[in-house]
DNA sequence: TTGTAGGCGTTATCAT
DNA sequence: ATGATAACGCCTACAA
């Protein structure tokens, strides 16, 4: 079945004009007779004519579209970022094309492949947890495709970056835990090589150090799929629970890790916060409705999308190659809730069962 | 800054060949000298040549892309549908372009506008709650753009549709409420004109009727933005709570309505399920972790996306106009949890303090 | 086996 | 004020 939208040619033929006249009339050129113009516009409206964006793209060598690569849209943080991206993009007449990597470097690669080969004018990118090979991104960037990284950035690719100050955020959240009486705080983090992982880990370490608590390597766990798979989180937590001494708090360093940790702890019937406190990054709208309400670090995701897009459009619309790049660091807020209530001294810390 | 990918022309010039030879070599045509072929392929690889999809689209009059119009991706149901769509689309070499209406008919219109005018080969569509004017969709459809509706369908546009059996699902969920002792069940629904609203309402009515309960018009509330705005849900619920006699259960007929209802009830400090039971549609991964765990109707969202996409590709790839259309109805499952525990007879039903 | 020309829809340039 | 032509990158019928 063939779908065929009306073209300038159709209008020209019907009205006995040349395509150039029609084109000019449609663009309201001053050199067209008002009568002709009216004729053309009316007929075009009747046909519901719209210029073919593909032809336009081919001619103008730009598609007026931006690619966004995220691990998945079914993640509050990323969907909020996307809303921020769209808010700016639409304003400036750009279409947004989303590609999901689902934390797989193969899928990421495939999405990039498609987006890159001239179908988008620029790229907004958050790396998948699996991505270690940056060669393709590097090459696209070298070829001149404007790229802005957000959230999970490639540190050594010289371009604009927008991140959240994960160091500060983690520092604040872990300090909060310590101030509420928790002493044995474990951390559940994303893949170790990600920039955000390093940052968040550093904030955790600083909070411990500043309060004179020891840093135990055995209290650190990495989840290479960012908590995308439940099993990965369950086994990490189980092994943490088997540590001696057992941690009295978990700090989860990303969205999926946080909610999946809650799931595991509930499954294991571990009381929060009495037997184990829980805090972590999360942008879900539902965290305050959970049982217990979760203490979370909420990132300014929408804002992040907006800023990244503004920077990208700057790159795209700049006449000369941009040499100076900036890294914007946004502050996140810590929302304190019941999952990290001050530790009660009287509670039995090591129940005999489990 | 200008990004310019290598073209066939570049290769032809460099190798002293014609563009057609290069083109054929790249497509591994049998009529090309193996030596030439090798030469071209190697040089192309070196340049990291990829055919320009825009030029291809212009020529082949298809873009190998599908448009998806949903109200928002930050909604578990829709993001799961999208994952289903992508799973099929990628397999068949199609790119997926997502457009969010955010329950606004203007944004929906704008997204459609862009997607439709030849940049996509077909459309997967779930109406925004605000959309009453179908003329644009109707026209695109009349012009031959293949469209498949899912979830919120346009009943009188003749094409494939994929829905969930909202009648059965509602019937089962409301029956469950009744069997657990609730008698005054109010319903919170989407905009009244939506097909899914009518269906779900009918299921609710049947359950009441079958159990000999009266249908009270005063127990029905519509939220025209589908619960996208918290305030809308809060005022609907407040007015329901003011009814005499006061309802003892709320049945929420869509995702956002369900979670926002929980939010309102908690804000008003109404105990669930003792003072008010709550059940509703939701595809969130977190419903079992909420306080209380929510009884929900979970739709086969991923499956829906898959099926809709398969049907759409059938339409797109069909040689002759398709005249026979099918409506697939999928079954949803009811997950029973604590928010609808059997009603305790001994509980005070009308606390004096609110 | 390779090359030439035309066309997909549009607009800019250069006539008329 | 309007028209003819070329070009964007690609493919293919036709020519050589």
TrEMBL record, chains A, B:
GO MF annotations, alphabetized: DNA-binding transcription factor activity; transcription cis-regulatory region binding
HTH lacI-type domain location: 6-60
SUPFAM superfamilies in UniProt: lambda repressor-like DNA-binding domains (SSF47413), Periplasmic binding protein-like I (SSF53822)
This protein's record includes keyword Magnesium: no
Alphabetized Gene3D superfamilies for the sequence: 3.40.50.2300, lambda repressor-like DNA-binding domains
UniProt xrefs under InterPro entries: HTH_LacI (IPR000843), Lambda_DNA-bd_dom_sf (IPR010982), Peripla_BP/Lac1_sug-bd_dom (IPR001761), Peripla_BP_I (IPR028082)
UniProt keyword list: DNA-binding, Transcription, Transcription regulation
Descriptive protein name: Transcriptional regulator, LacI family
């Amino acid at each position: 079945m063939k779908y065929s939208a009306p073209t300038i040619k159709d209008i020209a033929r019907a009205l006995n004009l040349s395509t150039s006249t029609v084109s000019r009339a449609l663009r309201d050129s001053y050199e067209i007779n008002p009568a002709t113009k009216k004729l053309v516009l009316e007929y075009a409206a009747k046909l519901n004519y719209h210029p073919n964006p593909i032809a336009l793209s081919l001619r103008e060598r730009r598609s007026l579209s931006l690619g966004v690569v995220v691990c998945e849209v079914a993640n509050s943080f990323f969907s909020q970022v996307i809303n921020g991206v769209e808010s700016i993009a639409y304003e400036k007449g750009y279409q947004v094309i989303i590609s999901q990597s689902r934390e797989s470097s193969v899928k990421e690669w495939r999405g990039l492949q498609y987006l890159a080969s001239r179908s988008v004018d620029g790229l907004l990118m958050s790396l998948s947890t699996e991505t270690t090979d940056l060669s393709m991104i590097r090459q696209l960037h070298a070829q001149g495709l404007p790229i802005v990284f957000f959230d999970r950035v490639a540190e050594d690719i010289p371009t604009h970056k927008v991140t959240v100050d994960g160091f500060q955020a983690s520092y604040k959240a872990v300090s909060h835990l310590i101030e509420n009486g928790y002493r044995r705080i474990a951390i559940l983090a994303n893949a170790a090589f990600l920039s955000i992982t390093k940052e968040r880990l550093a904030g955790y370490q600083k909070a411990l150090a500043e309060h004179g608590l020891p840093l135990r390597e055995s209290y650190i766990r990495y989840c290479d799929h960012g908590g995308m798979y439940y099993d990965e989180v369950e086994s990490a937590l189980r092994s943490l629970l088997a540590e001696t001494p057992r941690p009295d708090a978990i700090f989860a360093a990303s969205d999926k890790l946080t909610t999946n940790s809650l799931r595991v702890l509930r499954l294991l019937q571990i009381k929060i916060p009495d037997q184990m406190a829980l805090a972590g990054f999360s942008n879900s709208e539902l965290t305050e409705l959970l049982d217990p309400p979760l203490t979370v670090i909420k990132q300014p995701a929408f804002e992040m999308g907006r800023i990244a897009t503004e920077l990208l459009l700057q790159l795209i619309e700049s006449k000369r190659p941009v040499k100076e790049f900036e890294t914007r660091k946004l502050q996140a807020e810590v929302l304190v809730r019941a999952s990290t209530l001050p530790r009660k001294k009287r509670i039995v810390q090591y129940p005999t069962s489990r």
